Amino acid sequence: MALIGPRQCGKTTLARLIAAKEREVEFFDLERAQDTRRLLAPEQALAPLSGLVVIDEIQRQQQLFETLRVLLDRPEAGTRFLLLGSASPSLARGASETLAGRIGLVDLSGFDLSEVSGWAKQHRIADWRVLWLRGGFPRSYLAPDEAASGLWRESFVRTFLERDIPQFGIRIAAESLRRFWTMIAHYHGQVWNAAEFARAIGTGQATARRYLDILGDARVVRILPPWHENLKKRQVKSPKIYVRDAGLLHSLLELDSFAALGGHPKVGASFEGFGIEQVLSCLNPRSAHFWSTHAGAELDLLATVGGKRHGFEFKYSDAPGTTRSMRLAMSDLQLERLWIVYPGTKRYALDDGISALPVGAIPTAFSESAA
C-alpha cells in the first residue's frame, strides 16, 4: 500500500501508528543518508526482511519500484510494504504502472471534519470554522494561534515551490509558479479559462495547462471536471479549479483572520471549496463533477455513490432556500437527493428531495444516511 499526499499532511504519523501495532517493523526514511545508503543495493537490503517494511519519501528513489515488484511476486516471504511519498506525477505513474495489481494507493490531504471534532470539543472551539480558516495540515490546524498558523502555511508554500517541485523533476522558476498558484486562488471556484491564464502570465495556453496539471498532480489544486450528457442543453465543458486546502487558499489571498475572510469577496467561494473537500473526504464517491449549462442552471458538486447521484450546493448564508436551478438539477440529472450545505446549525427539509445541511454535520449526516 502507498500513502500519497502533500508534504506535512500526516503520512509519517499515520504510518508510525500502523507500525506500532506490528510485531516486526523495519523503517526506512529516504531523507536520512544512512537509510539511503542501505538501499543502494535494494534487493539485498529488502529481501531478507519480514513483517512490515515502511519506506518513507519513496519519491526520492523511484527505481525501488522495480525491486518491489520482484519481492511482491514472492508471497511465501510474507513481507508487507507500506510506501509513503509526496504526491507527484512521476510517483503516481511509477506506482500504478510498475506495481499494477500489486499496490493500493491512498490519497491523504490532512485533517477533515470527522477527525477534528473530538479534539475541538475538548478545547471548546468551533471546529469547522477553525478548520476552514487554518486548513487541514496538522501543524497549521494545531498551531497555538492564528499568527503561528499563518507563518507555518507561508513557510509551506515557499518550501513546496523551492524544494518539492524541483525534486519532482520539474524545472519551473518558483516565483513563476507561485504567481500562477496565487492567480488560481483569485479564480478559486471558477471555470478554467486557459487563454485568460496564459495572457496573465505571458505564456501559451499549453504552458498554462501544464502548470495547472503540475499543481493538480501534487494534490494542492483540485481540478473538478464538468458533467455533461445528452440533455439537449448546451453544457459547460471546462473544469472548475480550487485550491484544495482552505488554509493555503487564505494564505495565498493574504487572509489571516475570520474578520479578513468574512469581508473578502471570495468568502463564498472559499466556503464552497471547503465544503467540497469535506464532502469528498467523508463520502469518498466513485466520481465527482460539477454541472453547469450555458442557460444558467448549475450544481456545485455531483457525486456518484452506490450507483446513485447526489447533488450538493454550498451557500454561505444563514437561511438558504431552493432555486429554479436546483429543481432543474434534480430533474435533469435524476438526483437521489440534493443537499444545500450552509454554515448554520439546523438540518431541515426544504422541498421534495432537497434538504439544508449544516457544514459541521457532514460526517454524521452521511454515516446516518448509510445506516
Q: What structural category arises from helix and sheet content? A: alpha/beta
Which regions have little confidence, pLDDT < 50, spanning 5+ residues?
none
Biggest sheet overview: 6 strands, mixed
Helix percentage: 40-55%
**Radius of gyration over C-alpha positions, nearest whole angstrom:** 22 Å
What is the β-strand count?
Answer: 14
Average pLDDT metric: 86
Oligomer: single chain
Word description of this protein:
The chain is an alpha/beta fold. It has 17 helices and 14 strands. The protein has a 6-stranded mixed sheet, sandwiched between helices. Strands 2-3-4-1-5 form a 5-stranded parallel sheet, sandwiched between helices. A 3-stranded antiparallel sheet has the order 6-8-7. Helix 11 (194-201) crosses helix 12. It is globular and about 65 Å long. The chain starts with a strand and ends with a helix. The model has no long low-confidence stretch (mean pLDDT 86).
Give the tags:
five-stranded parallel β-sheet; alpha/beta; six-stranded mixed β-sheet; single chain; globular; 371 residues; 19% strand
Task: Give a short synopsis of this structure.
The chain has 17 helices and 14 strands.
SSE map:
Layout: E1 2-5, H1 11-19, E2 25-29, H2 33-38, H3 42-46, E3 52-56, H4 64-72, E4 80-86, H5 89-98, E5 105-107, H6 113-122, H7 127-134, H8 138-141, H9 146-167, H10 174-186, E6 190-191, H11 194-201, H12 205-217, E7 221-224, E8 240-243, H13 246-252, H14 258-262, H15 267-283, E9 287-292, E10 298-305, E11 308-314, H16 324-332, E12 337-342, E13 348-351, E14 354-358, H17 362-370
Parallel strand pairs: 1-4, 1-5, 2-3, 3-4, 11-12, 12-14
Antiparallel strand pairs: 6-8, 7-8, 9-10, 10-11, 13-14
